[in-house]
Amino acid sequence: MKNNYLVVNNCTNPYYNLALEEYLLTHHMEGAIVMLWQNDNAIIVGRHQNAMEEVNQQYVTEHGIRVVRRTTGGGTVYHDLGNLNYSVIADRGEDDRDEMRYFTGPVVEVLRELGAMAMFSGRNDIMIEGKKVSGTAQRIYKNRILHHGCLLFDSDLSAVSKSLHVRSEKFNSKAVKSVKSRVGNIKDYMPGEVTIEVLKERLACKLLEDAGYEALALTEDELVRIEKLKRDKYETWEWNYGQPINCAIHNYKKYDGGTVEVYMNVREGRIEECLMYGDFMALRPASEVADGLTGCRYRYGEVLEVLREFRIRDYFGTIGADEVAACICCAPE
Predict the structure, then answer these.
(1) pTM listed for this prediction
(2) 288: how many CB neighbours lie within 10 A of its CB?
């Protein structure tokens, strides 16, 4: 029987916490691992998002808010000490279960047990009375899956809206006025005696299925490796912002499954360079698909043929190959 592990992480440095999470996913290959953690003021950018477009750089600089890119897909979120983040690392399901609902279910149960009528909604959100209180995301590594989420417990919602840029194309309704109007704090829907520490304790028990567990102790050598990953990757401008190409073609489309944005250079009718951004729910890096398109003729049918060589839902969630192809180059009438 495989052990369950709880990682006690009191660090609030977002660079370190994301490095620790990645290390646990890629180096601890047995047993279920649960980590509960908090970040001091930070913007956490989705793996495939264009940080330059998403972040209000002037505001985050003036307020000392760090910008860090995570390894999972989805949208950009704001973290502060009023949030509680959770990470679950486990073996992938052998059946074709809905992994997002599978891992989100215990979180929703805890919130409801504590008095907040939470529900899973849309692609990856937890909602209470029409307000988003958590976003979740996933990625896979070999036979393992990482599922994590950020629970807005008592967060500074004004900083959420001021820190982010939101494209008007992402919304169909003019009734949506701001990021702040769409999100809420869990604390506002719970009895007064519930604290973030109570939520943390109940969530740990639920995610570990009330089974026995042990604290995961990291060796000194592992701590050195995590610090190196933090320094060489998560603290770097190259990882967090990246270097966009000087592109000749820039396309953007919004689908039910999220947004897709493509930057390309095409020479002599063939795709020479390609970068893909968006808030789609990816399990694998879309750069693998972008690299696969290098050298492909810039024609819808041939682009679609390349895309169909990939298990496209692992890269773009519910956005289909035909929709991705239509964003890259116009579909025939």
Answers:
(1) 0.87
(2) 12
